[in-house]
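Title: Prediction job returns without error message
Component: structure pipeline
Severity: low
Priority: P3
Assignee: unassigned

Description:
Job completed but the reporter wants confirmation the result is attached to the right record. Sequence as submitted:
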Amino acid sequence: GWFRRLLHKPKPRSVESSLNASFFSSSSPSSSSSAESSGSFFFTSLARSFRSSTVSDINFFGSARWAKSYDVCICHSFFYLELVEELVSYLEGQPESFRCFLQLRDAAPGSAVVTELCDAVQNSHCWVMLITPGFLRDPWCKYQMHQALAEAPMANGRTIPVLKDVDRKDYPKELRNLYYIYMALKENSFRQIRDTITRYLQELCRSSTSRTE
């Protein structure tokens, strides 16, 4: 008896045919109206789901992100200010809305340079070191680089060296244990910087969540 019932069991319909049957099978006006409203509800729900997933992607970093004032501090010489402003505009315009510290814009007027540089390092999750000829000559850039290395000796993605117009042989010895981004195509380099910051903040969120659990 069970074998006979198994043979006569109706076959399941495919997902596509189920959707078609649900939305478009009937030809009567009332059924058609119902199908249209059902289809509208389906696609509205799909759109809402997409929007909510996008919002969750933007906010996926979690509360650990807000433990510091900035997501990234940009360390640079003033000879490349225009390039740095483009980078900051790119990062702040991303869906993640990265919070950037730019010295000329965000440093408090009248404050000591040493204090501002130290605060910028301590209150940022990541540090982008734009290694240029001017950076190598600027004692304040080197000071900020040493502060970042002292803050996170093992680095673990927080210090992001970016080489621009500098030979590899001139790459600072203090950073030799870190991989760097070589800025050839600006768009690609900006994307790499963004991805590196994102990776660190994701890992920060995961480790913070695991500790609370």
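Comment from assignee: result matches the submitted record. The longest helix spans residues 29-58.
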